[in-house]
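User: quick one, fold this
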Amino acid sequence: MQPLLSFAPFRGITHKAYRNAFARHIGGIDTYYAPFISGTGTAQVHPAKLEDLIPISQQAAPTIPQVISNNAGEMILLGNILADRGYTELNWNLGCPFARIANKKRGCGLIPYPEIVDSILAEAVPKLHPALSVKTRLGYRHPGEIRKLLEVLNQYPIKKIIIHTRTGKQVYSGKADPAAFADCLKLSAHPLVYNGDIIHVPQLTFLQSVFPEQREWMVGRGLLINPFLALEIKGTVLTPAEKRDRLKAFHEEIWQAARERIGHETRRIGWMKAIWHYMSGMFSARDEVFFHIKRSKTDKEYLKAAEHGIQQNFADETELEAHFLKLTK
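Assistant:
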C-alpha cells in the first residue's frame, strides 16, 4: 500500500505560489499544509490573513489551513469562515517551537498546559464546522509532556494528530525520537501521523519497518532539500535530465510568482534565497550553488546563479544527509 505523504508547512516559504508550483511540476504529495494563520481576533478576519487560502479554486492541490492560537473564539471564527469557503479541515498548531510563540502559550508552548487545551477544545469543538486536526510535538521542555496532552485529545473528535518527534526546546536540532512515537501510538485514540527527519528513501523504509501499520507520514525539510523525495518514496525514478526539466519549470513558476507579488527586488530575491537555503542541498556542489545565489543582488545576477545551480550534478543520499545535518546544528 502506497504511503500517504503530507508536506509540512514552512512559514515564509511554502505559501500558495510554492505549493501550486510544486503540485504542478513535481508532485508526489497527497496533502499540503498551509503555513499557520495567527492573530485574527474574534470579531472579523482581515482579508489579508486569508490571501494564501482564498479562493480555494486557486489551490492546485489538496490544502489544509492551519491556525496557531490559544483562543477558542479565534479558532471558531477562522475555521467557520474557511469552511464557508470550501475547506473541510482546520489544523491546530500545537508544535511551533520558536520562543516568541511558545513563551506566549501558543504552539508547543501550550503542551505543558493540557487544562488550557481542554478548555479551548470544550468551547471550540461544538461550534467548529470543519473537522479539527492537531500538529504537535513530544513536549515543550520534556518529551513526556505529550502524554497528558493525548489524554485530553482523546476526549474530543480529533481527525488526526501529527507528531513531530522532538521537543520544542530542541527546535530542529538533535535527532528525532521514533521510540517516543511508539509510545504515543499506544496512548492515542486517534490516527497519528509521523513527522521528523524523513530525508531520503532509506530513512522512511527504516521507519516503515519499525511501524509496519503506519500509513501516513509528514515530510518537511527533506522535501525542501530534495523536492523529488515524495516521488522517490512512491517509486518514481526520474533521470537527471527529467529532474532538471521539472526543476526548471518549478523554478520558473515560483520566480514568476515572486515577480508578480513582491515588487521590491531585494525582497523577492530574499524569498528565493530562503528556498535555495534548503534546495541547494539537492546538488553535490551545494556550497558553491548557494554561495553564488546568496551573493546575488539583482534579478539578473540571481537568475544567472539559479540557472547555473540547476545544471549541477545531483547529490546522493550521503550528501543529502550531510546537508540536512548541517541545517540542524
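User: anything notable?
Assistant: The CA atoms of residues 37 and 277 lie 24 Å apart.
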